[in-house]
Specification:
single chain, 203 residues, mainly alpha, two-stranded antiparallel sheet, 63% helix, disordered N terminus
């Protein structure tokens, strides 16, 4: 639950904060320099309401980053990384992460300043991911001598490339491609992570 000055918010205030954060993601994704007034207009609230909840623009961006990080952590946990078969857990968590990153592009991107709360959440996500990779290594899915931190970083890079790769000036002249199915994209990412792009043995 969102908090102000460490205290839980009332239900109406909670709804107001959620609306502001959702609007901030939409507005800032389109224009990272957008003002709090523009966010307020998109959220359907007054400028005073936004300033009451967030002391300044940086506080709003920090809260947005923290909220998106929490959504990302929930996406990973929904894969049941401790109890589901490791490959099943990795596939579900990866597909979930793709959905969240697609919906929270600004808040999870380099343009958003990471608050201390968001940074702690991202550290915990990385730890959970490495634990899951460790389960896969114990079951022989990943080589015993593989550096799990490196494997995690490669996984992150594949997810980022899947979401943002090829987005250059030349591509902007083309019609945007339809969003790929997150489950199919997750399968491709994991296949590349585990098997690379070399020829497969026919045996």
């Amino acid at each position: 639950m969102s908090k102000t000055a460490g205290r839980p918010l009332r239900a109406d205030a909670e709804r107001s904060v959620r609306a502001i954060l959702a609007a901030a993601e939409q507005v800032l994704a389109e224009n990272p320099a957008a003002s709090m007034e523009q966010v307020a207009e998109a959220a359907g609230v007054t400028r005073t309401t936004v300033h009451r909840r967030f002391a300044n623009r940086q506080a709003l961006v920090d809260a947005l980053a923290a909220e998106a990080a929490l959504k990302l952590a929930e996406a990973v946990e929904d894969g049941h990384p401790e109890t589901a078969p490791p490959l099943v857990a990795l596939h579900r968590a990866t597909a979930n992460v793709l959905r969240v990153k697609g919906a929270w592009g600004f808040a999870l991107g380099p343009a958003a300043a990471q608050s201390e709360q968001a940074a702690r959440t991202h550290e915990e996500i990385a730890h959970r991911c490495t634990e899951l990779l460790g389960r896969m290594q114990a079951e022989g899915v990943i080589a015993q001598d593989a550096d799990l931190e490196w494997v995690r970083r490669v996984l992150y890079a594949l997810i980022s490339e899947a979401l943002h790769g090829g987005a250059d000036a030349a591509d902007s002249r083309r019609e945007p491609a339809p969003d790929p199915d997150p489950d199919a994209l997750a399968a491709r990412i994991i296949d590349t992570l585990l098997h690379g792009v070399g020829p497969r043995s026919s045996s």
